Amino acid sequence: MYQMDKRQLDDITEYIFLRDALRPADVIFIPGCNRPEHTEEAARLYREGYAPLLIPSGRFAKAAGHFQGVAEGAERYGTDFACEADFLAEVLRQNGVSEEAILREREATYTLENAEKTRELLLKKQGRLPGRAILCCKAHHARRAYFYYSLVLPEVEILVHPTPIDGITREDWRRTPEGRQAVLGELSRMGQQILMMDGRIAYE
């Protein structure tokens, strides 16, 4: 039996679980998901006046090839949605966000596309990019979500505001098989996906 030391565990935790201090912003970015938790948190930030515009992004997971349905919250929000963005928009509406404050991005099928198509939508609808955005995402997805949104939107100051799901937190991820699978899976995907983009990223 081997044991990871505190430094190793802390390094993984600090890398994956990003979190920034909240400040007022121009928009809230919401990467696609079939769960409501991070979008419920985005709605709370809207109600508290942190941003006037929210962009839920997502068609479906590329690997699935279609929207597989609501994984959590169906009893409250329903199940009849064509894509992730429509589901997340309903979560926002039922949590106090006005329809006028929601700008749906309905085409993205993975995190890089969430960022790319959000940029395209902002330029098309508003003709400019925001100065500051809050990125509401799942806690263990924070590093990868920030990586792509900051890569695609370098002009925008992005504040990461994560929401833990299924007890996968920076304090407890290592204590369950599910937590280790989620966090170490993200660690693995980060390296793989950066390598896949080699040639599209400038390192200097």
Automatic annotation (TrEMBL):
Highest taxon above the source species: Bacteria
Alphabetical list of CDD domains matching this protein: YdcF-like
InterPro entries hit by this protein: Cell_Envelope_Assoc, DUF218, Rossmann-like_a/b/a_fold
GO annotation, biological process: Gram-negative-bacterium-type cell wall biogenesis; peptidoglycan metabolic process
Start and end residues of each DUF218 domain: 26-165
Record PANTHER family: ENVELOPE BIOGENESIS FACTOR ELYC, INNER MEMBRANE PROTEIN, PROBABLE PERMEASE
Protein name: YdcF family protein
Natural source organism: Candidatus Anaerobutyricum stercoripullorum
